[in-house]
Design a protein that fits this description.
Blueprint lengths: L1 E5 L2 H18 L4 E4 L5 H13 L9 E4 L1 E3 L10 H8 L11 E2 L8 H14 L5 E4 L21 E4 L2 H7 L12 E4 L2 H5 L3 E6 L5 H9 L17 E6 L9 H20 L1
Parallel strand pairs: 1-10, 2-3, 2-6, 3-5, 6-9, 9-10
Antiparallel strand pairs: 4-8, 7-8
Helix pairs in contact: 1-2
Amino acid sequence: MQIVILKDATEVAEYGANLFVNQLQKKPASVLGLATGSTPVALYQNLIARNHAGDISFANAISFNLDEYLGLDGDHPQSYRYFMNQQLFNHIDIDINNTHVPPGNAADPIAACDVYEQQIAQAGGIDIQLLGIGRNGHIGFNEPSSGLTSRTRVKTLTKATIEDNARFFAEDEYQPHLSITMGIGTILDAKKVVLLATGENKAQAIKATVEGPLTAACPASVLQMHRNAVIVIDEAAASQLADVDFYKHIEAENQKLLARLARK
């Protein structure tokens, strides 16, 4: 697990975007795993700018989103399909038919989960997966107690997650309590995982993810097992880590090593 601690949310978004830019430059037909929420928005804005500047193209890329609310159509303003269209897909040169979000309006949600897994497999697996993290350590909608080998499935949201997301819904608006989410096992199958977190409200979850035991009580802790997971956080989100200077030193040494290898 690589820990990258940066000054603020702007630097976190730029660093994360550069990882996706590097992936697309290396492999234009990459399979991208994408996420919703407030944290990825700045990253998506960066990718849009890089696309418009001609640095990258999404023309041959395929995307799969982590999750979707169960019971919302894709044109519902609070659906994650709508979010992705507005925040990214409508502004880049991706083929909308190559963008996949779990179908929140599926007539048979359980069957739809199996189909989603099959689509990921048929695409060749996810090359780089973007994650946020909840205050309770959830990734996607894999809440605490989720199976560490779970696949795409219907999941009940915890009270904490419902309360955190309530700000996106009007007071009299229906807020779903169920979702379709990639499972933890599905996420672990990605060749590279990039988790972004900013702000003091994520500090406890980051500490549990990085320094706590591997446990279903903190689903994100499973990333300790991933061979290519990058945790990109700002100083506020890193504030509860035991030795921030140590993590910064290790990352600086990593960058020196990469620079030497690049010169060879």
